[in-house]
Predict the structure.
Amino acid sequence: MKNFNNICLLFLGLIFSSVSLIAGNPDRQGEAGAAELLLNPWARSSGLHSMNTSCITGIESMRLNIAGLSRMSGKEFVLANTRLYEGSEVGMNAIGFGNKIGENGAFGVSMTAMDFGDILVTTADKPEGTGSTFSPSFFNIGIGYSHMYANKISVGILVRAVSEALSNVNAFGFAVDAGVQYVSGERDNFRLGISLRNIGSPMSFEGEGLAFKAPTESGVVVSASQRAAEFELPSVLNIGLSYDFYIEELVIRGLANFTSNAFSRDQIGVGLEVIVSEMFTLRGGYKLEVGESGSIRDNLYTGLAAGASVELPFTKEGASRIGLDYAYRTTNPFKGSHNFSIRLIF
């Protein structure tokens, strides 16, 4: 009974928090920073446009709904690479490890880093470049825990450290994610998921790069430091549901998701996943962005997404498996994004 009461309190907390997110001020669109927290490096969930809030499991849940972490079996290790916005030369790399604790708990850690390539250093005197290059360092590390109750309700919480830095300017902050998943039906057909992401402290840049030299009235040149404005993290609420249809060795999963962004327009979408003998998976999704007046407008990550997975055993017992995942998402502009992942389950 005590555990049940705690779960109810968490549900209520998520609901009340969601009200404040949905009722965000439209004038705040585009004001948040650390936008890399909204990017998904994992291929399986990217193939569904990150809309599988209700049914995501394992390491990938650390990016979308931490409650799904406890629904993995044993240990899981994932490496991922993303070619963002084909043609922009921007990439993203991620690594994650999760471990089951007892029958119902799971612990996980993941790290994601952006790859901006080599950027030319330009100055007012040399706008074409000085011959030197630099590369920003954007990375975040998340540590999460999830617990499952009677295989029906799982809850989770994650703490993420966020760092953005150049050689002489940097910003650092913390974010918290929380999530719930509910499973019901004779074969766990129906699933419901709610997650809150990127709730944290404001960030601001500081460092020697913000210093400048200025003359005083007496003609003496002194060094002064500018104060950079603070920026909020891009808070997000996800509400999703899914239902599985079983046809012998075939599982057809339909899903729908609603995303409320505190600093941009809301998004809705649907997806479909076809799983054959728990070895081969095809998936796809379509996402729309809803304008202030209710009209549908295109954005960078709206439209189609698709992907596929192959998961094969590499031991005679079949308990240890290796998975290869790929996803493609259309973008406007650029030529889409490609996600690649390799998973070891043991």
